[in-house]
Amino acid sequence: MSGVYISWPFCAQKCTYCNFASGVHPASQQQRYLRALMHEISRQQWPWQPETVYLGGGTPSLMGESELAAVLGSLPGAPWDECTMETAPGSLDATRVRVWKRLGINRVSLGVQSFVEKELRQTGRRHTAEIVAAECELLRAEGISNFNIDLIAGLPHQDARSWEESLDWVRRIHPPHASVYMLEVDEDSRLGLEILGAGGRYGAGAIPPEDTVVSNYLRAVDVFRAMSIPRYEISNFAQPGGESRHNLKYWRMEPYLGFGVDAHSCSNGCRWGNVDELGRYLSAVEGGESPATGHMLVRQTEERFLLGLRLDEGLYCPPESLDAGLQASVEKWIGQGLLQQSGDRLHFTSRGVLLSNEVFADFLGAGLP
User: Fold this and answer.
1) Which CATH class is domain 3-251?
2) Which end of the chain is more exposed for a tag (fewer CB within 10 A), N or C?
3) Do residues 276 and 261 lie in contact, with contact meaning Cβ atoms separated by under 8 Å?
């Protein structure tokens, strides 16, 4: 299955935890970006017809009808098996959703992050739990029943009680898909910088301890399983058949092409990504140059382990197919209870999921081809 990712890096506000290449920019920049994006797409020689499309960013749900129609109309393969729109809660209305459906969008991912007002306001988010619930009902009423709710474990002021409040709202809404991401702490977000520098702004001093984050994640696993949306990837949960077809291709190493700022691609045994700064992207495309950078060959064995093991189904890995060095690493982690071999498939144990980064680092250190 092949797919396309479209980056729309514009937001109404920049959230404190966000480490994506997105931000608040004037309308004139958006029009320049649209022209550059369309030009980049027009230069693409398509090696296949995409089966899925994913519009991310940023907040692509803020795109106007003419902008969205232009972008989707430039892509081959319509109607796609799956076409996902990322949204910020509070940006949906019936007219907008009807436009999306008419243009081929059949899946929506809502960046909820939390249903708790104190947590939301600390991050800069403006929606409420009631707004999210109403927009999910709107999606269903307008015929888009395939939607996802994102949550973040580890936000400032989050504890077991507030996490349970968010999970209660997920129970009420009962989405076909949900995602739980651990808060990423790095220098690419304002909150991350404060945490790394032992600062106190943006609620950095109110980040829950690691054991609370882990407990909250495990609680979500149990709650979602009881709702018949079991985990299928470390951070993703879905009813059977409701898995994100587009995102599955990342973990199954299927081909995809990305367009726009910081969009990444993998095709014909090669990976590359576009520049991650809006001004550099515009300058490159408007100057007749490619915005792509960092071309590298896919390291088949390495990526098969690092990506395939993220899935609960694991990866096809008969013991006799491994060389001596890799077999030793696998046996070490099986012995420590983090991996298990089930016939010809290798996958994480429940404990292994929580320590997956340690296992991945070991495989990377082994120099897999």
Assistant:
1) alpha beta
2) C
3) yes
